[in-house]
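Course assignment 3, question 2. Fill in each field.
Student: A.L.
Task: Predict the tertiary structure for the chain below.
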Amino acid sequence: MNSKLSGDLVIIKCDKSEKLHNKSHYGIFTDEGLQLSLIEALYLMEKDKINVSKNDEKLFSDDLLQIIHEKSLYSKYIVFRDLRNRGYIIKTGFKYGSEFRLYERGTSPGDGHSNYLVKVASENDDIQLSDLSSYVRVAHGVNKYLLFAVVDQENDITYYNVAWTKL
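Answer field:
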């Protein structure tokens, strides 16, 4: 499937994009076509599902990876790739203040609600306890669990399921 890089999005305009969206829940449909995030596009490129071009010049996965590094999205990509490879459906979590919403295997957008909000951090990030508390409070308020993904220097991921408790 051919697609074009347009700013921070990759757009697919062919009929096959509907199948990609309906079956695997990538991107969102707009008047322009199927819009993928840079993270989704790189994942699909690495799986040989799409080709990406910019100004009629073919891009390689290393080109898109360079853009992701420049935009400080690499840790998020590592987590996205790991969760997708485990069979989860992942959508953006912007409106909840997190990177992703995570759907359990067998559940997808439209069939049910996401169960988790995923927050991504590097092992060297400074995180204030008050910020962590607010992430948990938001997740609890929308009946979701907070999955905190910490990426270390070797790009290994440790997941923490952080829950709200009352004392």
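Instructor remarks: The chain has five helices and eleven strands. The first strand starts at residue 2 and ends at 6.
Grade: pending
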